[in-house]
Design a protein that fits this description.
Layout (H helix, E strand, L loop, with lengths): L1 H13 L10 E10 L10 E12 L3 E12 L6 E11 L5 E15 L8 E3 L2 E11 L2 E10 L6 H10 L6 E17 L3
Antiparallel strand pairs: 1-2, 1-9, 2-3, 3-4, 4-5, 5-6, 5-7, 7-8, 8-9
Length: 186
Amino acid sequence: MRKIILLCCILVAVCPAAHPTHEQSKISLYGTIDALSVDALWQNALRFRLSVGSMVSEGVGFEIPVACTFDHSGGDEVLFDISLKLLVHPWGTGPYIGFTLTQLILFTGTHVPNEPIHYLNECVFGYTWEFAPRWFVRPSIIYRDPAESATESFAYITGLVPSWSRLQFSVDVGWVFASIATGGGR
């Protein structure tokens, strides 16, 4: 946990402290795909993660990531993961932090273990970089069960799907498909 706090302090130190001014508030709707799914080439699991979300120009938003992991290390388990996350960009763009509000992890497929449903949480630290109009890249670090409040569920899941670890790196490529003006400026 100390490393996570240190990472947050470094992000705050290297980022500009000014929040960009907006003439009008807007809500951006976007979709992303995790480009790190290519790690299936050298691991025993195939992982896909897509998400849809909305972000208010003031830097607060919600995201619904949906992930599916196909394990090939022995049991052929399929792990389905869906959650609702709160994202906060303190300066409107750049660094952000995310917290899971709710998360459901479900084993599906032909081999379903005795305990198929689990509830965990995550926190996410990352950076949003806009490389073209309406397109962005978002590298991030996902830390699962940061409070270690669900150690039994976490151990059960990693026992069946060894590639599912506490720390996951992600590189989301996203596209803003709609922007809605909400009126009034500051």
